[in-house]
Hints:
Blueprint: H1 2-19, E1 21-25, E2 28-31, H2 32-49, H3 54-73, H4 80-94, H5 101-115, E3 117-127, H6 134-152, H7 158-165, H8 169-172, E4 177-181, H9 188-195, E5 206-208, E6 211-222, E7 226-235, H10 242-260, H11 265-268, H12 275-278, H13 294-302, E8 313-315, E9 318-328, H14 333-346, H15 350-364, E10 368-369, H16 371-379, H17 383-388, E11 402-406, E12 409-412, H18 413-422, H19 432-459, H20 461-490, H21 492-502, E13 507-508, E14 511-519, H22 522-533, H23 537-544, E15 553-560, H24 566-569, E16 576-583, E17 586-596, E18 599-600, H25 607-629, E19 632-634, H26 636-646
Antiparallel strand pairs: 1-2, 1-19, 3-4, 3-6, 5-6, 7-9, 8-9, 10-11, 11-12, 13-18, 14-15, 14-17, 16-17
Amino acid sequence: MKKILLFALLFVGAQLQAQEVLFTVGSQEVTAEEFKAVYEKNKGVGNAIDPKTPEEYLDLYIRFKLKIAEAFDQQRDTASKFVKEFGGYRAQLAKPYLSDSGSEDALIKEAYGRMQQEVRAAHIMFELASSALPSDTLRVYNAMMELRDEIISGKMSFEDAARSKSADTWSAKQGGDLGYFTAFNMVYPFETGAYEQEVGAISKPIRSQFGYHLIKTLDKRPASGTVRVRQIFFAAGEKAKLAEKQRAERSAQEIYTRLQNGEDFIDLVSFSEDRKTKDRAGEMPEFGLNKMMPSFESAAFSLENPGDFSAPIKTNIGWHVIQLIERKPLPDFDALKKDIKSKVKRDSRSQVGAKKFVNTLKRNYEFTVNERNYKRTVALVDAALFATGNWVAPEKVKNDRVVATYADQKLLQSTVLAFWGKNQKPQDVEDVEEYLRLLFNVVSNDKVIAYEDSQLEAKYPAFRNLVREYREGILLFDLTQEEVWNKAAQDSVGIAEHYEKIKGNFTWEDRISYKLWVAQSEKDAKKIAKWVAKEKTDKLEAFLTSNDALSVAVSNGTAQQKDEDVFQSIWETETGVYGPVSYNEGFAVLQVVDFLPAGPKALTEVKGLVIASYQNELESAWVASLQEKFSVEINEEVKAELFSELAE
């Protein structure tokens, strides 16, 4: 017990130390914990580019906080544009903290486990709206339980019940049979019911967003994976004339016979009437379970070895002969994890984690309903008007009572009544009270989650630091853009004056304005040198456009001697023609058009660098003004202790 108490005291001591103020900038306080988090996060990147000691980084961070102090002083954090932009970022950052991550991981693993197997099931469905009241839900549930008892007792077969009573008319025609499926092919409650019972078993009523289902699991088999196939197709849709259907069937049968006689499948693809696959040797996109028409899919997956082909297969669009190219097994977990996670987030199964999360919050915050006050709140609703959707919630509630409590919060009658007023919809009068309870649960959950959201910065240091970085980053970007970047880019006079101050930093060595010819043969190079020297441009142009000069490279421009290797071999500063001289495996001829002595680069040549330097100057002046405006105080004791820790 003493050891536990000592550990707790040490932990509290460490927390207090982390929250101690390291420095202040104006009214801003920066804790040791904040500085440490930022330093540790950026240290790795900084060490690779420009290593800095904690002392140097502290100076940078103080300069940063001076700018943030100015942003707060200008009340930029209250501007509507900032509030909207920052609010969007914070909501995204909060999402992982407002869900049950453990549930998501479990759902991902569960889904992959189910993907190892395919289930064939039949069902009987009774329709029920997802927003149905508890009384309606119970009525439909009881009706389905009665039907289940009749089936299990032998009074009626499952198949006959599906044909006569199921609201799913498509599967009813097949006695409720839905064929084979795997994870994500069905809604999650249905999938779970089919997977978690034995073959031959009939489930109790299972609720989905479509209603209630009785599910009979017919078979289970290992995952089929995916296949790549090619096809030869003859069109004959359901509306085609009899003669056209007969022609398509005869054509498919003839292809099948020729394949049996040894002809190559690809050679026969030219007869196919599928324009999309005909130019790809009949190859179709890779597919898995429930991606093609049932008869086509069944035939494709029944082929065992690459090169095997099917007998003619009839679908509702025509006749097909299929050849297997490749079968692929289900990929391993790591390969599919990202895709499964994305599907889980979009699927109804994600609600499992959401429900668990809000229930956990309610337990942790000791959510309690004052049933007496809740009944008083219900009594304030005119059920007859509410049933028509025309009830108006009172603007003020006398003796606004507490309906529920959680943490240190209270859910008042006025809040509940306002929510009821905004979310009413027409229904039977006798159902109003049930519907009000459903809405009360919704507003209760919303309030508890909103409270948890408000506590995230206090509960999670990592989240607090990340949110602070986003807030300050947005503030700093807009402020720096106005104070530095835009000023530097738009101040043409300031740029010109700054250039005059620093132009000595940007200089050219001696340069020449030149034309250069490099020929493979010395004979051609001599001709070029002679024609250039004597200004026989017509002969030079004729030569350069003839086939004889295909091996001559021509270039021109302005260059320093160090710019290219060729200028190490031939460099002259007097105007004229020089060469040919041997260069690599050819011969170079140089014409110096003009000599440009060493000197500063023109502003147009270095404007980007000048603007960057001007920005630095403006920023330094800005920071200096902020240092005069805001006082900076460093707690040397906290600093010494923190720096000692950072040095370990």
